[in-house]
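As a next step, we paired sequence with structure tokens, yielding the entry below.
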Amino acid sequence: MTRIGIIIGSTRPGRNGAAVGQWVHEIAQQRTDAEFELVDLVDYRLPHLDEAYPPSMGQYTQPHTLAWASRIASSTGSSW
């Protein structure tokens, strides 16, 4: 079955992304053609621009970036 990660992309204090992500997740779960789960960017503590190569190259060296890339790769609905 297709697995879709609903990414909460805001990491700012006071963010509204978590509430929006939860709302989208609740609606998505009404579907039966895929599995949906929330993925919160704040859980991965990714520093800005600390990799030597652009993300599109997929050549990661930092443990936090490798963990994020592995998590996203587990969603079959991604376009990575």
Q: What stands out?
A: The chain is about 30% helix and 20% strand. The longest strand covers residues 2-8. The first helix runs from residue 17 to 28. The beta strands are 2-8, 34-40.
